[in-house]
C-alpha cells in the first residue's frame, strides 16, 4: 500500500511537470490514439481544419470540434477527456472537468494541475464495480431464467385458457336450449295457475264481503311485502315500509315489466336480468310518474284498494306474473303450485349457470385479447397485484387492471407503451385543482417482479419503476457482458 | 386529529390561494376608492363623481418666517393653511452634495401623544448637506426667494411664498414644479371627536363644527352642505375593507403633493408594477386608470399591465426628455398612490404627478440630474449602491418548490453534470423544514443537511434555504418561545402578539423595525443556532411584505403596533426591507472573520434594498406575457437602484411548454439575477427534461451566461462606483434619441452589450432597433461577429437565436471556458473581445477580486482599463493605483473585430514580445492567439 501511494505521488509529480508541455496523446481515447501520432500537422478529427501539430494539447482551442485539446480544458464546451483508469475501466469525461478541482477520473488523471489531490482508487472502484457488474450479470441471467419461466407459464396459461374458452362456448348452446324449453314449460304452468288464481280471487271477494270487519294482519303483510320488495331489487331502503311504498314497489315492478314488454315483447329469455339491469332511467322515471299518478288516485291504506290495484293488473299481459308473483303475499300463491316453483328454480339455476359461463368467456376473451407481450411473457402478471410501501403510502399496481395510492385510485390500466417498456394507468381520482391522477410504470429487467422508486414529477402525475424478468433480454445481457470484459 | 384539522384548514386556505390558475382576484386588493385617504386626496376624473371627497387646502409661507440657519445648512420656514389658521407646518429646505435638494414638512407643533413616522435606516449616514447659497433672498415684494443647488447660476430653486410653490430649475430651465396644482395636502394629527349627547339637529351641526376645528378635513367653503360633511367624515376614524376593520386610532394624517416634470413626456420608476417601463398616464384627458399604488403585497397570480401594488416598492420617479433627466424621491413607507397625467402647463408637454401617502411626513428629494448618469449617482448617493454580489450568485440558480429529499437534491445536482450544464446554487423551498419552522429540517427527507451541503460544496456549488418572517406559534419551537418571552412580536391593536395565518398555520411576526430584534434575528444564523447549516448555505427571504393569509389584502392589519409606538401603516413598506437586512447581517456575522459577502434573495423591497441583496419579481406565471413583462419590470427596478434582480425563469405558476421555457432561459441568461423556479404543482422542469433541441439550446443559453460573467461582475463593480443600472434602458446610453424613450423590450448590459430577448411565441423574424444613429454607432452580432450599422434591422430568430450585439467601441472581458460552476472558472484565462467603432477605437474595463470576500474594500482587487486606439491596445490601471490584488490569471485570446490585418503584433512584456495571430478578412477579425499575458500587470500590444 505504501508503495502504491509512493508510486501515485510520483505519477502526479510527473504530470505536474507536464503542465507546460503536455504529451499530445494525453487524454486521448484508445480508439483515436493513431490520429495523434507525431507529425507536422494535425487534422482536427471531426472538422476540416488542419493545424500545426505543436498546437495539440497546448491549452488553446484551435479545432472547432475540440479534438486538438484532448488533455486540457481549452475546448471546454465540446471536448472529451479520456481517463485511463487502470484497474477500472477507461472512460471519457467532459474536458470542462479537467483541472476543475473535482476528482472525476478514479486515477486522478483529470486533475494534473493539483488544484486538488485526487486519490487513485481505480483498483478499489474497479473491484467494487466488477463485483457489482457480476452481480448485475448474475441478476440479469437470473432474470432471463425467470423470464423463460414466465414465457412458459404465459404460454401454458394461454393455451389452457384458449381451450377453456372453446369448451365453454360449446357448453353454452345446450344450456340455452334447456332454458328455452323450461321457459315454455313455466309459461304453460303459469297460464294454468292464472286461471286458478282468478277463481280463488273471485271466491275471496265473496268471502270478504261476508266478513267485512275481519282485517288481515297488516304487520305481517308489511314484512312479507318488504321481503318481496327485496326480491324485486328496487326497494326503498327504509326499515318500516309504508303502504304507499309498497305500492311504489309494485309499481316499480310493473315499470320493469312494462320495460321488458316494450323492449323484449315478452319473448326474451333474459327477461329477468334485463328487468333488474334496466338502465333506461329516463324512460323509467316517466313511467313511474305515470304510475304514481295512477296509484295516487287510489291512495288508500285499505287492503281493498290493494286488491283493486291487483285487479287492474289483470288487464296486463300474462307476463306480468313473472314479476308480480314473487312479490305477492304468499297467500295469493297457492301452495299447490310447487311444480311451477320447482321449474322456476331449475330455470333460474340454468340461467345462472349460463350467466357464469358467459362471464367466464368474457373474462378469458378479454385476457386473451390483451397485449400479453412476446411469447405471452406478461400473462403471468395478469390478475396479480404488486405493492410498494413508502413512508406515506402503499402503492398498488395491478397490471391490466388498476393502480392506487392507498385508497386513492391512480387510474385504470390503459395500455403498454414505449415498446412494451411502460404501462400506463389513466383516469384515476380527480386531483383537487388539477388533472385526474395517472401513473406510468416504467419497467426494466430484474430478477423478481418488484416495484420501487415512486415519483410525482407533475401534479398528480405519478411514475413508478417496476423490475420484472419480463423485460430482460439476451441482447442486453450481451452488452453487459461486453462492458464487463472491457473493464477487466 | 389536531393535525388533521390543521391540514384541512390549511387546504382550505390553500384552496383560496391556489384556486384556478387563471388570474388575480382583484376584489382582494384595494384601489384608490377603497383607501379612504386616497379617495380624499385624489382629484377624481371619474365620470359622475364630483370631487366632493377632495379636501382643498392652500398653503402660504408665513410672512417673515423664512430663516437660513447657516450652522445647519438649512432654510426653515412656516407654512399656514389659508383657511385654517391652526394648520401650521414647518418646512426644512436643504441642499446635499451632488445637486440634491431636500424638502421636509410636518406639523410645527404636533400633539404630544401622537407622532408622525420619519423613515429610518434608508438614507446613508454619509450624506452631507452643503452650505446654501442664496440666489435671491426672500422679500415680500417679489413674493419669492431662491437658492442654488449647485455651483452654477443656472441651477437653482425658486420658492413662491403666497401661495406656496417650489420650482426646481436645471440649466436655467424650469424642470420640476411643486404644488403647481395646489395639491399640497396635509392632514394634521388630531384627537378623535367625542360622541355628543345633544339634540339630533344640533348634534349634526356640532359634529360639523368639530370636524372643522379638529380634523381640518373640510375647507370652510359654505357650499358644502351638512349632508356632504356627514359623508366625508366617514372613514376618518375607522374604515373597513371586506371583513377587515381598520380601527385607525390616530385618525386622518395623510399627505399629498403634486410635482410636474416640465417639458417631459416620459417618466419611469416607482417599481414594482406590471406596466410598461414608461409609466402610463392614470388620469386626465379622459383617462380613468387607477393610480399607481405602492404598498407591498403578496399578490396571488398577478396580471400584466396593472398599476396595482406588488411585493416591493421604491418611491423614486425619474423623468427624462432630450434635454435633461431629473427625479423625485418621495421618502415615505406608508401606503402611497401616484397619479400621472399629461399636461400642457407650465409648458407642453409636461408630466404632472400627484403623490398621496396615508401617513408619515412630507420628505422629498429632488434629483436635478441633469443627465441619466448623474441621476443614478445622486440616487445612489442617498440610498447606496448594489452590494457587490459574490460571483457564484451571478451564475445560474436552480430552484423548485420543492426538491423533496437529499437524494432528490443530489440527483438534480448530478443531472447538471451529466448534461454538461453549469449551475451554481440549488435551492430548497418551504417543504425542507420541519412543519414550516424555519431554521429546522424535515428529518425524514433531510436527515443529514450538512452532509448534503458538503456534497454540493464538493463541486464548489452552494445551497440556499428559505427562511420566512412568519413564526409558527408552537411553544416547542425555540424561535417562537424565545420571541414570545422577549416580547419580540408585532402587537395587534389590543396589545397582544399579532396572530395571523401563513404557511405554518397560526403565526406571529417579529418586529424587525426594532434594531434589537434585528440583532437577535441575525444571531439565529450562527452555525451553532441554525443546526445543519454550513458556510455554503445562503438564504432566501420570502413572504416578507409581510404576507398574512387571513389579513387585509393578504397582509398585516394597519393598526398593528410596532417598535416606537408606530402603527404598521407607518412602516409597512419597510418591513420586508428590515427583514432582508437582518438576515443579511446574520449571514455576515455567522463567520468569525465576518468576511463572506452575504447572499439573501428577498421578495419585498424598498429604497435601499440594493445595499442588502437580490430581489426577484415574485410569483409570475408560465405565460408568454409574463416572460415579456419581465424585461420592463427589471428595467424599472434597475432604474430605481434595485439592479440585482430577476424573474423566475419558466414562470412560477403553471407549466411552460418547451419553447417558452427555452426562450425564458435565453432571456434570463441576460438578466441580472438568473434563477429557474416552479410552483409545487408544476411539473419538474430541470433543463434536461425537455426534448431536443430544447435542452441543447437551454444549455447554450446558460453557457453564454457564464462566458459573460466577467462583464456582469465588472458592471456590478461599476455600479458600486456610479450607481448606474446594470440592465439599462437604451435611453440611458442614448439620452438624445427620443425614439428610444418608450423601448423596454431591448436593453443594454452595462454600456456595451445590447440584448433583445425573444419573448413572443413562434417568433420567426424580429425587428431590432440598434441605437446610436447620431453617433454613427456600429453593432456586432455576437454570434456572427458581423458589423451592423445603427438603425432598424430585421433578423431571423430561430429557436437557438438570442439577439445580442456588442457595441462598436466597446471591449468586453469574457471567460469562454465553461465549467461546472463559477468557482471552477476563477483561475481560467480570459478572452478579450474588442469591437471597433468608426474611428477604429474601443475601450472597456475589467474588474477582478477574490469573488467572495469583503477584501476588495481594502484594495484587494484589480480594476483595469483596456484602450484600443491607433492600432495600440493598452492595458492600464483604472483604480487610481488603489488596487493591489494578485490573480495569476492570464489572457488566452484577444479578438478584435473591424480591424485591418497587421504584419506583426508586438508586446512590451518580456517573454511575450511577439504574439501569434490569425486574421479572418471576411469579418475583419483578428485573433491574437495565446498572448498568455497576466491580467495583474499592465501591457501594451501594438499591431504593426
TrEMBL record, chain A:
Output a single Gene Ontology CC term carried by this record: glucosidase II complex
Region entry Disordered, spans: 191-286
Q: Acidic residues bias located where?
A: 265-274
Top-level taxon in the UniProt lineage: Eukaryota
Q: Name one Pfam family in it.
A: PRKCSH-like
Entry keywords, A to Z: Coiled coil, Disulfide bond, Endoplasmic reticulum, Signal
Q: Could you tell me which PROSITE patterns the record lists for this protein?
A: MRH
Q: Which residues form the signal peptide?
A: 1-21
GO biological process: any one? N-glycan processing
Regions of compositional bias (Basic and acidic residues) in chain numbering: 191-232
Q: Which positions fall inside the MRH domain?
A: 383-474
InterPro entries per record: Gtb1-like (IPR039794), Man6P_isomerase_rcpt-bd_dom_sf (IPR009011), MRH_dom (IPR044865), PRKCSH (IPR036607), PRKCSH_N (IPR028146)
Q: Which residues form a coiled coil?
A: 340-367
Protein name as annotated: Glucosidase 2 subunit beta
UniProtKB/TrEMBL annotation, chain B:
InterPro entries in the record = Gal_mutarotase_sf_dom (IPR011013), GH (IPR017853), Glyco_hydro_31_AS (IPR030458), Glyco_hydro_31_C (IPR048395), Glyco_hydro_31_N_dom (IPR025887), Glyco_hydro_31_TIM (IPR000322), Glyco_hydro_b (IPR013780)
Q: Gene3D superfamilies, from UniProt?
A: Glycosidases, glycosyl hydrolase (family 31), Golgi alpha-mannosidase II
Q: Where is the composition biased (Low complexity)?
A: 213-222
Which GO biological-process labels does this protein carry?
carbohydrate metabolic process; N-glycan processing
Q: Which CDD domains match?
A: GH31_GANC_GANAB_alpha, GH31_N
| Cleavable signal peptide | 1-23
As for subcellular location, the record says: Endoplasmic reticulum
- Stretches assigned to the Glycosyl hydrolase family 31 C-terminal domain: 723-812
Give UniProt keywords alphabetically.
Endoplasmic reticulum, Glycoprotein, Glycosidase, Hydrolase, Signal
- Grouped into one coarse class, the protein's main location is endoplasmic reticulum
Family named by the database record: Belongs to the glycosyl hydrolase 31 family.
Taxon lineage: Eukaryota, Amoebozoa, Evosea, Eumycetozoa, Dictyostelia
Biological or metabolic pathway of the protein: Glycan metabolism; N-glycan metabolism
Q: Which organism is it from?
A: Dictyostelium firmibasis
The protein here is known as Glucosidase II subunit alpha
Amino acid at each position: 500500500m505504501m508503495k502504491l501511494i509512493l508510486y501515485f505521488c510520483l505519477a502526479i509529480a510527473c504530470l505536474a511537470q507536464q503542465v507546460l508541455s503536455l504529451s499530445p496523446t494525453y487524454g486521448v481515447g484508445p480508439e483515436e490514439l493513431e490520429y495523434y501520432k507525431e507529425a507536422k500537422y494535425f487534422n482536427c478529427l471531426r472538422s476540416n481544419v488542419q493545424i500545426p501539430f505543436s498546437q495539440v494539447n497546448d491549452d488553446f482551442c484551435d479545432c472547432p470540434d475540440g479534438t486538438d485539446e484532448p488533455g486540457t480544458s481549452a475546448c471546454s464546451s465540446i471536448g472529451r477527456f479520456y481517463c485511463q483508469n487502470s484497474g477500472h475501466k477507461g472512460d471519457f469525461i467532459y474536458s470542462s472537468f479537467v483541472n476543475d478541482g473535482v476528482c472525476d477520473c478514479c486515477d486522478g488523471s483529470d486533475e494534473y494541475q493539483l488544484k486538488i489531490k485526487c486519490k487513485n482508487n481505480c483498483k478499489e472502484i474497479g473491484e467494487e464495480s466488477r463485483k457489482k457488474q457480476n452481480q448485475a450479470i448474475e441478476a440479469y441471467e437470473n432474470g432471463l431464467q425467470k423470464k423463460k419461466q414466465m414465457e412458459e407459464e404465459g404460454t401454458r396459461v394461454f393455451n389452457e385458457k384458449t381451450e377453456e374458452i372453446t369448451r365453454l362456448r360449446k357448453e353454452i348452446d345446450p344450456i340455452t336450449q334447456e332454458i328455452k324449453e323450461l321457459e315454455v314449460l313455466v309459461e304453460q304452468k303459469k297460464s294454468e295457475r292464472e286461471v286458478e288464481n282468478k277463481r280463488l280471487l273471485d271466491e275471496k271477494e265473496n268471502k270478504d264481503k261476508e266478513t267485512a270487519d275481519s282485517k288481515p294482519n297488516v304487520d305481517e303483510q308489511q314484512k312479507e311485502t318488504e321481503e318481496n320488495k327485496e326480491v324485486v331489487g328496487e326497494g326503498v331502503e327504509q326499515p318500516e315500509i309504508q303502504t304507499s311504498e309498497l305500492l311504489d314497489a309494485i309499481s316499480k315492478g310493473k315499470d320493469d315489466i312494462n320495460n321488458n314488454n316494450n323492449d323484449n315483447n315478452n319473448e326474451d329469455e333474459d327477461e329477468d336480468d334485463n328487468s333488474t339491469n334496466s338502465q333506461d332511467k329516463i324512460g323509467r322515471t316517466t313511467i313511474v310518474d305515470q304510475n304514481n299518478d295512477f296509484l295516487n288516485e287510489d291512495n288508500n291504506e285499505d287492503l281493498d284498494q290493494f286488491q283493486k290495484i291487483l285487479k287492474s293488473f289483470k288487464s296486463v299481459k300474462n307476463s306480468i306474473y313473472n314479476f308480480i308473483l314473487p312479490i305477492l303475499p304468499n297467500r295469493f300463491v297457492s301452495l299447490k303450485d310447487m311444480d311451477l316453483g320447482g321449474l322456476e328454480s331449475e330455470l333460474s339455476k340454468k340461467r345462472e349457470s349460463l350467466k357464469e359461463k358467459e362471464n367466464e368467456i368474457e373474462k378469458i376473451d378479454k385476457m386473451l385479447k390483451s397485449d400479453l407481450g412476446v411469447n405471452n411473457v406478461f400473462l403471468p402478471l395478469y390478475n396479480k397485484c404488486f405493492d410498494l410501501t413508502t413512508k406515506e403510502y402503499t402503492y398498488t399496481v395491478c397490471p391490466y387492471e388498476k393502480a392506487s395510492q392507498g385508497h386513492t385510485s391512480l387510474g385504470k390500466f390503459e395500455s403498454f407503451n414505449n415498446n412494451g417498456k411502460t404501462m400506463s394507468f389513466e383516469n384515476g381520482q380527480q386531483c383537487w385543482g388539477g388533472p385526474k391522477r395517472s401513473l406510468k410504470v416504467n419497467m426494466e429487467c430484474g430478477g423478481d417482479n418488484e416495484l420501487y422508486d415512486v415519483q410525482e414529477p407533475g401534479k398528480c402525475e405519478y411514475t413508478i419503476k417496476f423490475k420484472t424478468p419480463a423485460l430482460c433480454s439476451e441482447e442486453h445481457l450481451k452488452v453487459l457482458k461486453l462492458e464487463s470484459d472491457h473493464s477487466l | 386529529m389536531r393535525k388533521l384539522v390543521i391540514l384541512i384548514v390549511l387546504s382550505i386556505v390553500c384552496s383560496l390561494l391556489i384556486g384556478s390558475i387563471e388570474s388575480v382576484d382583484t376584489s382582494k386588493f384595494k384601489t384608490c376608492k377603497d383607501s379612504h385617504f386616497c379617495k380624499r386626496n385624489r382629484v377624481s376624473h371619474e365620470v359622475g363623481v364630483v370631487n366632493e371627497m377632495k379636501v382643498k387646502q392652500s398653503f402660504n409661507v408665513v410672512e417673515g418666517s423664512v430663516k437660513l440657519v447657516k450652522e445647519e445648512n438649512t432654510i426653515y420656514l412656516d407654512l399656514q393653511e389659508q383657511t385654517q389658521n391652526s394648520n401650521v407646518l414647518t418646512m426644512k429646505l436643504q441642499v446635499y452634495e451632488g445637486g440634491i435638494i431636500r424638502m421636509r414638512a410636518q406639523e410645527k407643533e404636533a400633539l404630544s401623544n401622537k407622532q408622525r413616522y420619519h423613515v429610518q435606516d434608508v438614507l446613508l449616514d454619509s450624506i452631507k448637506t452643503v452650505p446654501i447659497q442664496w440666489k435671491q433672498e426672500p422679500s415680500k415684494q417679489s413674493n419669492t426667494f431662491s437658492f442654488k443647488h449647485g455651483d452654477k447660476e443656472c441651477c437653482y430653486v425658486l420658492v413662491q411664498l403666497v401661495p406656496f410653490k417650489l420650482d426646481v430649475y436645471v440649466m436655467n430651465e424650469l424642470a420640476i414644479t411643486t404644488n403647481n396644482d395646489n395639491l399640497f395636502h396635509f392632514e394634521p394629527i388630531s384627537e378623535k371627536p367625542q360622541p355628543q349627547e345633544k339634540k339630533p339637529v344640533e348634534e349634526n351641526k356640532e359634529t360639523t363644527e368639530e370636524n372643522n376645528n379638529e380634523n381640518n378635513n373640510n375647507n370652510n367653503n359654505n357650499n358644502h352642505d351638512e349632508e356632504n360633511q356627514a359623508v366625508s367624515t366617514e372613514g376618518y376614524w375607522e374604515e373597513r375593507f371586506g371583513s377587515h376593520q381598520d380601527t385607525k386610532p390616530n385618525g386622518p394624517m395623510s399627505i399629498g403633493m403634486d410635482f410636474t416634470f416640465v417639458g417631459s413626456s416620459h417618466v419611469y420608476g416607482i417599481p414594482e408594477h406590471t406596466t410598461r417601463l414608461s409609466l402610463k398616464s392614470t388620469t386626465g384627458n379622459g383617462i380613468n386608470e387607477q393610480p399607481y399604488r405602492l404598498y407591498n403585497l403578496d399578490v396571488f397570480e398577478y396580471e400584466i399591465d396593472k398599476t396595482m401594488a406588488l411585493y416591493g416598492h421604491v418611491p423614486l420617479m425619474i423623468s427624462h426628455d432630450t434635454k435633461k433627466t431629473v427625479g423625485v424621491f418621495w421618502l415615505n413607507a406608508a401606503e402611497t398612490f401616484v397619479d400621472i397625467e399629461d399636461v400642457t402647463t407650465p409648458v407642453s408637454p409636461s408630466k404632472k404627478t400627484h403623490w398621496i401617502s396615508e401617513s408619515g411626513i412630507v420628505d422629498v428629494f429632488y434629483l436635478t440630474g441633469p443627465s441619466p448618469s448623474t441621476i443614478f449617482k445622486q440616487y445612489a448617493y442617498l440610498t447606496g449602491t448594489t452590494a457587490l454580489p459574490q460571483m457564484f450568485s451571478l451564475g445560474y440558480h436552480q430552484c423548485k418548490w420543492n426538491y423533496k429529499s437529499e437524494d432528490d437534491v443530489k440527483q438534480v445536482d448530478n443531472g447538471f453534470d451529466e448534461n454538461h450544464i453549469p449551475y451554481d446554487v440549488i435551492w430548497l423551498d418551504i417543504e425542507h423544514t420541519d412543519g414550516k419552522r424555519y431554521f429546522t429540517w424535515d428529518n425524514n427527507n433531510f436527515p443529514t443537511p450538512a452532509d448534503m451541503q458538503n456534497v454540493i460544496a464538493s463541486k464548489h456549488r452552494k445551497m440556499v434555504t428559505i427562511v420566512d418572517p412568519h413564526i409558527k406559534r408552537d411553544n416547542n419551537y425555540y424561535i417562537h418561545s424565545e420571541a414570545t418571552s422577549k416580547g419580540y412580536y408585532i402587537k395587534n391593536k389590543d396589545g397582544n402578539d399579532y396572530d395571523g395565518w401563513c404557511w405554518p398555520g397560526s403565526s406571529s411576526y417579529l418586529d424587525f423595525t426594532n434594531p434589537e430584534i434585528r440583532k437577535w434575528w441575525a444571531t439565529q444564523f450562527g452555525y451553532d443556532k441554525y443546526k445543519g447549516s454550513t458556510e455554503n448555505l445562503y438564504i432566501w427571504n420570502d413572504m416578507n411584505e409581510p404576507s398574512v393569509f387571513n389579513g387585509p389584502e393578504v397582509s398585516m392589519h394597519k393598526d398593528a403596533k410596532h417598535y416606537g409606538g408606530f402603527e404598521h401603516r407607518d412602516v409597512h413598506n419597510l418591513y420586508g426591507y428590515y427583514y432582508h437586512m437582518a438576515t443579511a447581517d446574520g449571514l455576515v456575522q455567522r463567520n468569525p472573520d465576518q468576511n463572506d459577502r452575504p447572499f439573501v434573495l428577498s421578495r419585498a423591497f424598498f429604497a435601499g434594498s440594493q445595499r442588502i441583496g437580490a430581489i426577484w419579481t415574485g410569483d409570475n406565471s408560465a405565460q408568454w406575457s409574463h416572460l415579456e413583462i419581465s424585461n420592463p419590470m427589471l428595467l424599472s427596478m434597475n432604474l430605481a437602484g434595485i439592479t440585482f434582480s430577476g424573474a423566475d425563469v419558466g414562470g412560477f405558476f403553471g407549466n411552460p411548454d418547451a419553447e417558452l421555457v427555452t426562450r425564458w432561459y435565453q432571456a434570463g441568461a441576460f438578466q441580472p439575477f438568473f434563477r429557474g423556479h416552479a410552483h409545487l404543482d408544476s411539473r419538474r422542469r430541470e433543463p434536461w427534461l425537455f426534448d431536443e433541441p430544447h435542452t441543447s439550446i437551454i444549455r447554450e443559453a446558460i453557457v453564454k451566461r457564464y462566458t459573460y460573467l466577467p462583464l456582469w461582475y465588472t458592471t456590478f463593480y461599476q455600479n458600486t462606483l456610479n450607481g448606474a443600472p446594470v440592465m439599462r434602458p437604451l435611453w440611458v446610453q442614448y439620452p438624445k434619441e427620443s425614439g428610444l424613450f418608450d423601448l423596454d423590450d431591448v436593453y443594454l448590459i452595462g454600456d456595451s452589450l445590447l440584448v433583445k430577448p425573444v419573448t413572443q411565441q413562434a417568433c420567426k423574424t424580429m425587428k431590432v432597433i440598434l441605437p446610436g444613429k447620431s453617433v454613427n454607432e456600429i453593432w456586432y452580432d455576437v454570434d456572427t461577429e458581423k458589423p451592423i450599422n445603427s438603425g432598424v434591422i430585421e433578423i431571423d430568430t430561430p429557436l437557438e437565436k438570442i439577439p445580442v450585439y456588442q457595441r462598436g467601441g466597446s471591449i468586453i472581458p469574457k471567460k469562454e471556458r465553461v465549467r461546472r460552476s463559477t468557482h471552477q472558472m476563477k483561475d481560467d484565462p480570459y478572452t478579450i473581445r474588442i469591437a471597433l467603432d468608426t474611428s477604429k477605437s474601443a475601450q472597456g474595463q475589467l474588474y477582478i477580486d477574490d469573488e467572495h470576500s469583503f477584501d476588495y474594500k481594502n484594495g484587494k482587487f484589480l480594476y483595469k482599463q483596456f484602450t484600443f486606439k491607433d492600432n495600440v491596445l493598452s492595458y492600464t490601471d483604472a483604480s487610481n493605483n488603489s488596487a493591489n490584488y494578485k490573480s495569476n490569471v492570464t489572457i488566452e485570446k484577444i479578438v478584435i473585430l473591424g480591424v485591418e490585418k497587421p504584419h506583426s503584433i508586438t508586446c512590451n512584456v518580456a517573454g511575450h514580445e511577439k504574439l501569434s495571430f490569425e486574421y479572418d478578412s471576411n469579418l475583419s477579425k483578428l485573433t491574437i492567439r495565446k498572448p498568455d499575458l497576466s491580467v495583474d500587470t499592465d501591457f501594451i500590444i501594438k499591431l504593426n
